[in-house]
Amino acid sequence: MTTINNCLSSLKNILRKADKEKSICFDFHTSGCDKVEKVKALRSKEEKKSKQIPLTETQIYELYNLELSGRDEEVRDVFVAQCLLGQRISDMPKLFAGNYKKIDDHTVEITVQKTQEQAVIYLFPVAKEILNKYSLNGFKHLNINTNPDEQEDKSREYVRKTDDHIKKICKNAGFDEEITYTEQRGSKKTTVKKKQHELIHTHVTRHTFITLMCKMGFQKKQ
After folding, report:
1. Which of 72, 161, 184, 201 could bond to 68 as cystine, CB 3.0-4.6 Å?
2. What are the distances in angstroms from CA 20 to CA 27, 128, 156?
3. Does 34 have pLDDT greater than 90?
4. In whole angstroms, what is the distance from residue 120 CA to residue 102 CA?
């Protein structure tokens, strides 16, 4: 729905500019384009969250202990590390490369790529184990980019290529609980049922991290 509304806004802006161009025979106001309304949100806050299913702590460790190799192993390791570190994929390269300020044996600080703010990160034992695993020899099957000028494009490419991959890995891990959630398609609400592994993607990692921290007593703003 958000994508549709953003496209409508962009299209209206383009047509308004076309209206001002004398060389283009188009009248925005008489065309009726201004009468096209955005799609209204019909779902409640709870219904919007019904599709956002975080992994449990048990599932994270089940995933980490899964016997994998090659690309599967690397995709799984990055995914688990994100669940335990709470960082976007665009910030993972600097963590794997060791480009951070070490505060103590269990805590580091990085500059967040998206906001340029400082983030203090606690290194859970498994997350630390994964970072150490790739700090020396890097990745053999994944392109985890370390060039800040290319990170945004590379991050999108990484997400696009690995989302289906992580779904398959989670299916093999047995994450097949049936999830019922509500979707809005146009002006109608629809109830959908899917297996949990079908709903898992890269962005689930941050939701998982926040959920884990809340269960440990931390506030979301922290």
Report:
1. 72
2. 9, 58, 35
3. no
4. 10
